[in-house]
Design goal:
7-stranded mixed β-sheet, 3-stranded mixed β-sheet, 9 helices
Length: 267
């Protein structure tokens, strides 16, 4: 196969794009974009673990819906940290079930984590009053100078940008979160059902991140490499935050959809 590549080729490409030992790396992926890959999701996960090494940490969002958080909440689900399936792609579902992986308890925006800082990254997520704030794995990705890998997916899959929008909300002209809270049920690791009252992301958020992509490229903070037909994009969380902040000051980071427009992405 002309575009075939092996797990070893993937590991090499990850290193070349800038992933290294000790990194704290949040991964977004679409396995159906791994055309020609001579392996399965397990081999992708092993390659990532190999490259960050035993001192590194891997994170993958394991969000349990594909529409909006508000629509999901209105269905009155019960999030089970042990059993609720990730809707963020096959690799994330295999990863959350893998040995040594822990998962944060949050009814809408849970994260699966492996590695040295796993417990620290997920601590207290169930206590957060919003999905992606400072005291969540997304906020800690910035705190610990983490990186973000987009493997075959566009920029608007970057869940870290929800943290950025939450954090910058006082500087923005549009609301990021709902005013009302939603009672969300979840099971802890012992199976006990609890309820959190959570503000969720507005269904009118426009998820077009093309201005942010242009700004990151202008700042030379966008690193990209291909292996086979697969695009690998690596970003520093700090660079994303700083670029978004600059755009926010000119009204170009977060916008609202028109009232009649349907939501286009997860939130």
């Amino acid at each position: 196969m002309f575009f075939a590549f092996t797990p070893a080729d993937l590991s090499s490409a990850l290193r070349q794009v800038g992933v290294g030992p000790g990194d704290i790396l949040m991964v977004h992926s679409a396995f159906d974009r791994f055309l020609g890959f001579q392996g399965g999701p397990v081999h992708v996960i092993r390659a990532l673990q190999e490259v960050v090494g035993p001192g590194g940490t891997l994170l993958m969002p394991t969000i349990p819906f594909q529409s909006t958080a508000v629509e999901y909440a209105l269905g009155d689900p019960v999030f089970d940290v042990r059993r609720t399936v990730s809707r963020m792609g096959l690799i994330t579902e295999v990863f959350r079930r893998a040995p040594g992986v822990v998962r944060s308890i949050h009814p809408t925006h849970s994260v699966a984590v492996w590695g040295r800082r796993a417990d620290a990254m997920i601590a207290g997520h169930e206590e957060a009053e919003t999905p992606c704030g400072r005291h969540t794995p997304y906020g800690r990705l910035l705190e610990y100078d983490g990186k973000i890998l987009l493997a075959g997916v566009p920029a608007n899959t970057m869940t870290f940008c929800y943290f950025v929008a939450e954090d910058l909300e006082p500087r923005l002209a549009v609301p990021v979160l709902t005013r009302e809270t939603y009672p969300m049920r979840w099971k802890d690791r012992d199976g006990t059902v609890q309820v959190s009252n959570v503000r969720l992301f507005s269904v009118r958020l426009d998820h077009d991140l093309s201005p942010l992509v242009r700004e990151l490229k202008r700042r030379e903070a966008w690193r990209e490499r291909r292996v086979g037909r697969l695009s690998l994009i690596l970003l520093r969380a700090r660079d994303v935050y700083d670029a978004a902040g600059a755009l926010a000051d000119t009204g170009r980071f977060v916008r609202e959809l028109p009232m009649h427009a349907a939501p286009r992405s997860r939130s």
